[in-house]
Amino acid sequence: TGEVAIVLRLGSIVGDSSQTQIVESGSLHFALPYPIDQIIHIPTNEREFKLASQFWYTKANVTQTDDEAAMSAGPLNPELQGSLVTADANIVHASWSVTYMVEDPVLFVKSLANARITDSQKMMEEAQKVVQAAAEEGVIFAVAQVPADDIIRRQTTVVQALAKSHMQQTLSKLKSGIVVVAFVADQTAMPLSVRGAYQGVIAAENESADAIARANKDRAEILGGAAGEGHEALWELVKRYEIAIEANNTDEIARLEAAFLKAFTDKKIEAGDGRVVAISGEVASVISAAEAFQNQIATTARAEAQTFVKLKERYDANPRVFMNRHWETIRERIFSNPDHETFMISPSQPHLTIPRDPELQKKRETERYRERERQQQGG
After folding, report:
1. 216-227 pLDDT, tens per residue?
2. CB 4, CB 42: distance < 8 Å
3. Would the pTM of this model clear 0.90, i.e. be above it?
């Protein structure tokens, strides 16, 4: 199980086609004695090997951590340490795992199998030297296409795909009958001499990303609290209005002011994706307060206008009587007001100094405060 056989008769493969040339397991087969016939057993299960040291760095001893080794690391020695050159002319380290299998045993026998080796395991070990060379070439080719930072942090999938493709092309050109199942970068790293600086850059970028994320969150909360779901569309409208003001574009200013009026009146605005979203938050509160104040002013003005019309009718009917009664009403209102203080002065007194009574002021403030509390509790 897990292997097939190829029969060589006087050095040539027995069989007229690939189907008849491959002897499957599971039944009894016959062959002529050696040296007329020779049986070559070929494993067809998946096989794996690692490129663990070819492109990886070495440390002074195995107990050292990477950080400890980085502290004492000097310039990279290419005779002792494996490395790779990237597309941006930087150096990186990487270790790899490669999985492959024999897909076409006939091609494999013709190109890579050594008929003198009778043990199939040893034969595959010899063939793997060619496969490993193709894998190393694939790694060198792939890493040379991608910048160092992408290999270390972001695009190992791109490098892996390039390495696998190049390795498969090499093996296909050799007509090896081998297919690459997987090509994985187990780990990647910068040279030890720049490890500290590179980690500092990564830490700074992470801190920057966190600060940007917090700022965006605060921005969303502030703008959302200001105008709710419609804050983005309203902010775009404000920016266009400021640009129109700076350019003194009267037509655009008029158009945008009309858009503002409609948005504030409807408390809705069209977003960039065409959706109509509601304007809420502080903007909606200010609009509601303005509308309430407008209604209050209008109501007061209408009431005063009605009062004026009635008073004018009385005045037109009898001006003298109206004026006398009106002045009496005003005087009564003045003298009966508890907030007013009355002072008597003789005709001969040239002027009057009026000190404010602090107790009276305190009493009035207390009464006004209590009145406001009663109104709030009643509301």
Report:
1. 888 888 888 888
2. yes
3. no
